[in-house]
Amino acid sequence: MASKASIPKGTRDFSPLEVSKRHYITSTIQKHFKDFGFQPIETPSFENSDTLMGKYGDEGDRLIFKILNSGDFLKKVDSGVYDEKDSLKLSSSISEKALKYDLTVPFARYVVQHQNEIDFPFKRYQVQNVYRADRPQKGRFREFTQCDADVIGSDSLWQEVEFIQLYDVVFSSLKLEGVCIKMNNRKILSGLAEVIGESDRLIDFTVALDKLDKIGEEGVKKEMLEKGISQSAIENIKPIFNFEGDFGSKIELLKSLLSNSEVGQKGIEELEFIQKVLQELPLQTATLDLDVTLARGLNYYTGAIFEIAAPEAVKMGSIGGGGRYDDLTGIFGLKNMSGVGISFGLDRIYLVLEELGLFPQEIKETTKVLFINFGEDEALYALKAVSKLRASSISAELYPDPAKMKKQMTYADRRNIPYVVLAGGSEMQSEVYNLKTMKTGEQESYSIENLINKLSNS
Amino acid sequence: MASKASIPKGTRDFSPLEVSKRHYITSTIQKHFKDFGFQPIETPSFENSDTLMGKYGDEGDRLIFKILNSGDFLKKVDSGVYDEKDSLKLSSSISEKALKYDLTVPFARYVVQHQNEIDFPFKRYQVQNVYRADRPQKGRFREFTQCDADVIGSDSLWQEVEFIQLYDVVFSSLKLEGVCIKMNNRKILSGLAEVIGESDRLIDFTVALDKLDKIGEEGVKKEMLEKGISQSAIENIKPIFNFEGDFGSKIELLKSLLSNSEVGQKGIEELEFIQKVLQELPLQTATLDLDVTLARGLNYYTGAIFEIAAPEAVKMGSIGGGGRYDDLTGIFGLKNMSGVGISFGLDRIYLVLEELGLFPQEIKETTKVLFINFGEDEALYALKAVSKLRASSISAELYPDPAKMKKQMTYADRRNIPYVVLAGGSEMQSEVYNLKTMKTGEQESYSIENLINKLSNS
């Protein structure tokens, strides 16, 4: 009857300390989402399969977790279909629901379904778990948390400015300085493909370009040639392989490169607007960089593209990203809704804060004070104080059993509880509580009022 | 290609207002969990099937959502098994994982798996979603949130006292006064069955007794007779059908009824301890009642049993419950771990607060202030103030487009934004911001410093 205690691969249990650290990050992000006027929504953990299938490409479809229909699920299966014994065909007959793969498609579904209750432009945030049947590996899980903020129903570039500010404010709050907000624009990429005469190879062109930091200039050129992009075309965009300088000088370079592309000019205009506004509203700790190789899910984004790089000291890759998409809700029948959004990568931000030692010390503290249990009368005396401390929002515990002193002190120590109260017969007589500071070993007696004061201010 | 926008039956989308109201409840509960020294853990949304199957009885097994194996899941299925076309048999060959059905079994699995990292007694809380393939109906969903707190590794009755205090403090914080904490003890039920000579019909006896408030005295007697309990046995416990009076007088009654039952006496002792302590530490707004008909999952509980009744004015049934179980982790091979825990019913508490109008007004407010967008220069001037307000934790928005005034004002109104700032050319010249209070229509000009002050304090 006894089952082995284990969890599915790619999933995780979170210990109290891990939950607290994750909560520190998500609550910081959520606080700023709210300050920026975003409102929370939540969608179910699973959706109807047809809401999700076909939205993430073939590879995505394979990674979607399907839920088996309940009850006698084979009863409704056509026997012809059953006899084929084909996993893919059978799965659509025995499964109608699927775990959500990301927050974006369910959000699009939500917007369409609730369009009459929503006041557009709709600024929403969502912090929920998503599920992917991916091969688990370091930093890649089958259940993980996404933190997204999007605005839907406006194509104003002020939103792009605000998302850059939002990234800056969140990472500054987390004391994670030196984050780089890399930006690009789909229109720049289209412009580049256009001026080299390879507009119909836009995807191949950008997929190759996106790999510059991984495979280097020669690697990118090789891939472009393989994809049929001509040698002379590649020569024409040579400058972008060594694209140096600040945001402003990169824009100047692009202006000359893209002088013959209307769409390219439009992209430059958008980037210039953002740059101009941010000169008036400087970022706190992040830097903004123009990265013309940045593509990220190009099929999806139609304007701005963002990606966040962790500070250079940490080898981590992207810790966030996003961009503008012009027709997200079209798949559910609601046309012409421009949207723009960003995402924070909780797991990677966690690893970065851990590596740089940026989690605040307070996170480790759990309960503020443990009352030692010396027996029934003493425990009642203790619980009276415990109740008053809790009423003052000071977390307090009474050790449940009159166990050996050493055992109770070890519990306090291992739990990182900074204070212990010892109150026996003599303390009861004088109506005081003897407070021991665990770090220093110091002990002092306090009346209940002074105990509350002492622990409120420490 | 366009899919219909809908969600699976029994699941819900939560709008911003609903998320805020739910968060108001869960964050209140979590605050007090922490004040009482409970620590948060989280477990995955899905577990290995053998962790869950067989733990909730046959009915429970049927209600567990199973996840289809990924990839070519039929490849490994034995063709003999496949040819039988039996849903139940096939499901265990094509599904290895299942969505969690409650928080308790995964918690037991967690304790066993992490026993070497845990400092016992382990006080943990968990607020997570669970999934049941139940027939959806009013107030019953296929995905819902459970809020549990348990202590494992101590059989101290101080825990029972603290859980009663915890219920009282949480509902008092939520301004939900008049909640009744109904209590019983498995040992009382065993004692009653013993003194009437029906110990081997304990389950039938208590299942019938548990229905007293639904089917009345005659109904209960009828069911007991049908189950083979004798007429004279029923006569012997007649007093409990009309069990009136306060906690203390009920205990006195039980003392005479159970004078010949050792286990019954033990149950009385436990109840008396709790009563004695609570006389010294009176509850704030809840009342404690002894309800000898209360059974709740009797097979599970071994000592105290709790159930929370909403205030009488509201027809709602139980809004929480719990009890002591002596061997929860035994199913995973860790013996002799006594545990006691309680649960809060989020959805029902939500309905009760809604019905009694107890959600605070502030929940409806979203963003504090909207800045009207009059065009590019004005918007930049506005965004400078918006950024400063946000830095002071005042939620602020700039309307993204220079739309018609009426449209922007309507947006503020529908979003329940209490303040609007109008800043055009003349305000920019005088370096002020014109603040309009939506409720009164009042308008006044403020410097940025005074604007921050004004909005911080309102």
UniProtKB/TrEMBL annotation, chains A, B:
Q: Which PROSITE patterns match?
A: AA_TRNA_LIGASE_II
Q: Where does L-histidine bind?
A: 102-104, 132, 146, 150, 296, 300-301
Annotated Aminoacyl-transfer RNA synthetases class-II family profile domain residues: 1-400
| GO cellular component terms, A-Z | cytoplasm
What protein family is recorded? Belongs to the class-II aminoacyl-tRNA synthetase family.
Record NCBIfam families = hisS
Q: Quaternary arrangement and interactors, per the entry?
A: Homodimer.
The protein depicted here goes by the name Histidine--tRNA ligase
Record lineage: Bacteria, Pseudomonadati, Bacteroidota, Flavobacteriia, Flavobacteriales
